[in-house]
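Hi team,

Below is the intake form for DNA mismatch repair protein from Rhodosorus marinus. Please confirm the fields before the structure is written into the shared record.

FORM ID: S-0412
PROTEIN: DNA mismatch repair protein
ORGANISM: Rhodosorus marinus
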Amino acid sequence: MAKRQGGIKAYFLPVSGISGDSNVGSKKLESKKAVVDEDDIVPVFDEPKAQSKLRVTGGRVSQRISPNPPKSFLSQNDSGNYEVRKRKRIVEDEDDDLEDHLEKQEQRSSKHESRTRQHPSTEPKQQNGPPPLPDRSAMREKLLGSSQCTEDGNVEETPEQVWTKKNPWTTNVRDAERRREDDPNYDPSTLYIPAAPFEKLTPFQKQFWNIKKDHFDVLLMFKKGKFYEMYDRDADIGASVLNLNYTGGGRVDMRCVGVPEQAFAKHLARLVEAGYKVGRVEQTETTNAAKKRRKSHEPAAKSQICQRALVRIVTKGTVIDTDNLASHQQRYVLAVEELVDEGTNRATVGVCYVDASENAVYVGEFEDDERRTWLETLMVLLRPKEIVINCMRVMSTAFQQITSYQRSQGVALMKTAGTLNTNVEFPSHVKEYLEEHKSAEAAMGVCRKYFQYLRIENEVFSMGNVKIQSVVRGSQLQDMDADKKHLVLDACTLSNLEIFANNHDGSERDTLFSFVDHAVTAGGKRLLRTWLAKPLYSAKAINQRLDAVDALGTLLDNTADHLEIRNLFASFGDVERGLARIHSTAAAEETVVMFDDTNKRKVIDFVKVVKGLKTGLEILDRIAHEWQRMPDCTSQILDSLLDGEESIPNDATEKLDYFFTGAFDFVEAERGEVKPPIGESGDPEYLAALGKLEDVDRELESELEMWREELGERSLRWYHRGKEGYQLEVPKKWFKPGRRIPGEFTPMSDSQTGKRFWTPRIQELYRRRVDASEGLSDQESGLFKKVLSRFDESYNCWSSIAEVVSKLDALMSSATLRKRSGHQLCRPEILENTTDRPVLILKNAYHPLVAEKMDGGTAASFVPNDTKLGGDDPMLVLLTGPNMGGKSTILRQTCIAVLMAQIGCYVPADACTITPVDRIFTRIGAQDRITRGQSTFMVEMEETAMLLNCATRNSLLVLDELGRGTSTFDGYAIAHAVVDEILTRACRTLFSTHYQFLTKEFAKHPEAAVYEMAAKVRNHTMIILSARYRAACLKRIHRQSRRSMRNARTSRSCTSSHPALHLSVVVSTVRGWQISHPPWRMPRTNVPGLSKTP
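The structure came back. Fields below:
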């Protein structure tokens, strides 16, 4: 029997002992099984009731045989012993044994020639004898196991050490231009291999290094049979990252590790997440096809190994196997191209970003400032896995600083030389846009060049799923007042409010998205994420979405089986990514050899998508039926989705039914088999291949029946053993004295129940069956690809089903949030911007994420607060109070309420009235950016300058303790100047501060209101209350501070208990609560750089 141990096949022969040469016979085997190399193994034929003995003679395995041995199987040597003749190998699907045989045969030949040159033999040469044989030490090592220690105690070199010594270019690495690794111009993607050593490599080694030398920075997973193997330094990485064991004795002399084909995706994901680019090298012909090629008369077709090719390079941003992805997270590859104005350092930035899992391409262009603010915002929104640049261009310092920070966060920076501008059938509006926007066109070219390097350019771009991204409002190409469709969020705001990633570990846990996300489909989650990244600005659009949320909420409340509807959504699956994978398979031009497990998985994945689409149609039917039963409810969005402009095509059901009944046998497809539908003629070529296989099967059955009659044994049967199928098994009871097996029988294997044979006729039929089976497999693959191509022709229809289901799921997520347990949520009242005084009113608002972290996970213990900005109230609120008094919490909860209202969600408050906000500016916290050379104060000033340069009267400004990054006097001057400027613009603003003279200065301003976080000190414990309005509160704050200091002198410490946050903090002194100011009044100061840029 054959067993794979660590990637190598070993055959075990039952023996009763080993005798013969003294060097071998002196070693006593602990087991009754001798392990020999597969190239020296031969079938052993035993006569009944006869004890056979193996012996080793001259490096060959021989056997003393009882009388009447089969002459066609044995030959007699010079010593009179019968020697087992090596039989001809049979080639089937798996090619690793054949290639190892050829490799080792060549190695043995070279070793024999070397020994012959060193120690010429004095014996006469046998002209017609067997090929040169390995010496006894080699056979002894094969029999007794690989050993590095000789009898005299010396350590022998391993094959890997011999390989390294013979090929020093694998360790002393140089690139194709012969530059060493310490050279600043070293190219890590290439490898220099000297011509002389390369010519001495075996054919397989040449095949491997021909690919590796041009992709030296790519970890190659090399297909051999049903395994993916890694060699040399790639094997070291595989052993370290995947915790794999090296293959014993090495593989083709190089270090080797391997994984089975069915586990490829899992191990690929681990290598990619570890930061490696992984190349998939596939066989492009079967072993049977290779054998036929070698028999041809073409000189170039005589290669002894299967042809292989690098068919795909996988990176962090291009892993498209959904089993290895968080279903709703998108993995973007972002290509950037800058056209810089050297005078101002501003740039026209072209971007192209791709989600390969959906074959979605986005392209756009905008003019950015010298700090690349909008480019940084885009990166924060997308969180790309890879950033691609054209290495032929010099990027600006600001861009290099941004990418340096992104790389520190695990983002890969890829470089490609030049662009690609081959013709692709893009929609006409995309072509026109690219002709007019050169930076966007250049970014598209860089992106396509990179995807061509990855071997997936055709698969991704051939779908034509290209979307043009609108110019960012606030950039130099479009101001904040133009074409307002969405609320703008910059990178600073996304980070400060922890919308998609928390500031602790960068995950989605405890973020606003995690709070509002109740979607159950992957597409619904992605759409909800898009809504949160781009909240609506139009009051009409917001109210329409809120109407749809209310309508779906009422529908679920009035439907008895609403849980069944939600379960249907959950079983929908990730159809959007499934459609993209089907298109990639249909568009792929590769002709790789994939074995049964992989082909079945692809068929099963296709069946899942078809079933998902059928579930989607059922969802739409159920909701449409329930919607018709609710005439009192109105929603323009639901009307449009279910029976309007956005609804699915009328023939969607008919098109989908074809793939259940007309395209193939759906029952067989669920098991991973693609066959023509039952009851139809099907594909003629497929039927011809099937008929050829059936003819061979009938001949084999006839052959079996003939031998049953010939031998008079009805229990004869076929035995299939790996690559040597259709062995004629003769039961042992047939072997009786006087009975002889026919001379044309060739022993193949035996067992306790019988012996198995081949005849020339059976061998020929088996070869024909292998060819017929391969032809049928090709036809099945072709049939499957035809089915995929026809399915892909209706991509727009299937995409519309997925899009409508995703929208309904996202709306149902908001409807589910309405009645979230433990939270008081209200529908916001959205007013049109018809006056010059926008309004923002929140009653008893709270921070939903903070409330969830409190005891019980509800808002009951949270001290709510009111916020009134604009309308009949002042536009600016100055908020003061003690540290940890909740000032920053009020600032953040106000922003979160606005965001939730403008994505069409209910708001965490008792009441909410707002006019839409066009942009939220936040200046919260104190942090530096060391990687960009910016101190805490510099970051604070840059964010404030952005605020003053871009804010409009419809913006919401949030500033938390502005001026903390510098001295008291400078900080006060900056804060005073900024507040004064904001009041002239009449923006809705929340401004927290500890500067008491600032509150006194603006307390009587008609557009400013001063609030303080009320607090009580009781038994050395400070209790924080809600914010309350005051006209002039300096005396009360100073009085509370003096009382707190007297208490602190008694105990030298006090405990601050915040009931809203349930925190207890020990404070060593309370002097920080009282800020000393000079008796004179600070003059108003205009800080350079903070005024609006003309």
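SUMMARY LINE: The mean pLDDT is 75.

Thanks, M.
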